[in-house]
Specification:
By secondary structure, the protein is mainly alpha-helical. 46% of the residues lie in helices and 11% in strands. The model has no long low-confidence stretch (mean pLDDT 88).
Length: 95
């Protein structure tokens, strides 16, 4: 419960942004992204089921992209220093 309470601490703005991004049409198709192997979709192995299912689906829509599953990682794995460092290192190497 404390983690969920913290998620709502600053109000509903984050929820509204997620809702809009998930439901409103985008101005491009995922299949049109041309980053290839420079794009990595990261997901925590212990994330909520919808995210664990959605991440591979998203990755398959972007030609040549990669999927990285952080074993034991939950929805907040990106804020852990070792995972954030790995993500940033890959970004620097790819761009």
């Amino acid at each position: 419960l404390p983690a969920k309470a913290h998620a709502w601490k600053s109000g509903v703005d984050g929820w509204l942004c997620d809702w809009a991004l998930e439901r409103l049409p985008w101005s491009f198709s995922l299949e049109s992204i041309t980053l290839g192997p420079r794009l990595t979709v990261w997901v925590g192995g212990e994330d909520v089921e919808a995210i664990k299912i959605g991440a591979p689906f998203l990755q398959q829509l972007v030609p040549g992209s990669k999927l990285r599953v952080v074993e034991g990682g939950n929805h907040g794995f990106k804020s852990e220093p070792e995972h954030l460092a790995a993500i940033l290192k890959e970004l620097i190497e790819n761009f």
